[in-house]
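re: the backbone from monday

yeah here it is again, tokenized this time
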């Protein structure tokens, strides 16, 4: 299983101690998951998309798309977003989106009805299907359409290359786009131990540096000229995404690294620390803050997310929605540690 964590700019989290008026608070809604549906992975991805203000507001402005009728993910997402906004019900069905997702990926036998799937991969594929519906004329790997939310807001435009310090040989740069930056939890924890041994205490840039080191761990290539050197891949970020999703990949279903992973996570990510180099000045200066985390425990997904309207952390477990109160912070931390034992997804 994989994990995802979302980070975004500080605008949505800057007034943490300044409550808004009660009349401005929109109650959070849960999503149904009847026995046998196994829709918790989709519900978690859906809660992330709805609560990401940048996505929700941008998606609301889209009016035209390439419709696929009963398998149209765009239409299903528009429908449930309207229910999130206007329905008086506290629990909403995600059946229409579940059905459209299953029909869309039927040939690949992914995200099929009644079958559990991966929340991080679901989140990633929902973004790419939105690209298809609104920017089908542009290829996924080179889309520059200004109205394409996935590529304008989420996509990390990268290239990777090997450079040999011994003989000077360089490999051809390989460009690619990723919506989720995946990291091995084993590599994350091993690197955290090594880095802490070299410094007295954690520093503000440690989390980005930790992710970069963990991403490169074991990712080695032979010198392009075969001079005998073994090289680490250099990844260069060429844009400045507004939202960064980190996927934590667990090496097995039974891991004892849950506590170590939680303690290794940071709440602030300097984008310039995440890659070998970033080309945009805005990206080099960008600081993103943790706003959401999808967890997997006991073959079940649920979500923690910071709701900017009420400036509080909320916990979403299908139909059940709870505020993460200060008085229960210790219990919530224990719950997050338990739930992180299989997979989690972070969004910044």
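seq for it, each position gets an aa:
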């Amino acid at each position: 299983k994989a994990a995802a964590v979302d980070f975004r700019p500080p605008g949505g989290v800057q007034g943490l101690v300044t409550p808004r008026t009660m009349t401005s608070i929109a109650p959070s809604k849960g999503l149904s998951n009847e026995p046998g549906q196994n829709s918790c992975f989709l519900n978690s991805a859906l809660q992330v998309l709805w609560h990401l203000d940048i996505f929700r507001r941008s998606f609301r402005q889209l009016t035209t798309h390439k419709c696929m009728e009963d398998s149209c993910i765009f239409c299903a997402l528009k429908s449930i977003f309207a229910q999130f906004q206007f329905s008086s019900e506290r629990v909403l069905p995600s059946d229409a989106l579940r059905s459209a997702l299953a029909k869309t990926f039927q040939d690949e036998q992914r995200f099929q009805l009644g079958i559990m799937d991966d929340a991080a991969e679901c989140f990633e594929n929902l973004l790419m299907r939105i690209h298809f519906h609104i920017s089908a004329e542009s290829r996924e790997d080179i889309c520059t359409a200004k109205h394409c939310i996935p590529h304008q807001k989420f996509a990390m435009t990268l290239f990777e290359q090997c450079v040999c310090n011994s003989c000077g040989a360089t490999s051809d740069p390989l460009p690619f786009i990723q919506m989720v930056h995946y990291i091995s939890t084993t590599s994350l924890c091993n690197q955290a131990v090594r880095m802490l041994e070299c410094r007295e205490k954690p520093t503000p840039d440690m989390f980005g540096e930790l992710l970069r080191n963990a991403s490169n761990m074991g990712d080695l290539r032979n010198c392009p000229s075969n001079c005998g050197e073994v090289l680490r891949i250099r990844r260069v970020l060429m844009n400045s995404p507004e939202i960064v999703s980190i996927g934590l990949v667990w090496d097995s279903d039974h891991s004892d690294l849950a506590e170590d992973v939680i303690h290794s996570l940071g709440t602030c990510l300097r984008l310039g620390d995440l890659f070998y180099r970033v080309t945009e000045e805005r990206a080099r200066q960008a600081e993103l803050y943790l706003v959401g985390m999808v967890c997997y425990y006991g073959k079940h997904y649920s979500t923690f997310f910071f709701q900017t309207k009420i400036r509080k952390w909320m916990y979403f477990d299908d139909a059940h929605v709870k505020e993460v109160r200060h008085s229960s912070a210790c219990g919530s931390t224990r719950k997050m540690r338990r739930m992180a034992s299989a997979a989690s997804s972070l969004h910044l």
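Confidence is low (pLDDT under 50) at residues 12-26, 327-344. The two ends are 20 Å apart (CA to CA).
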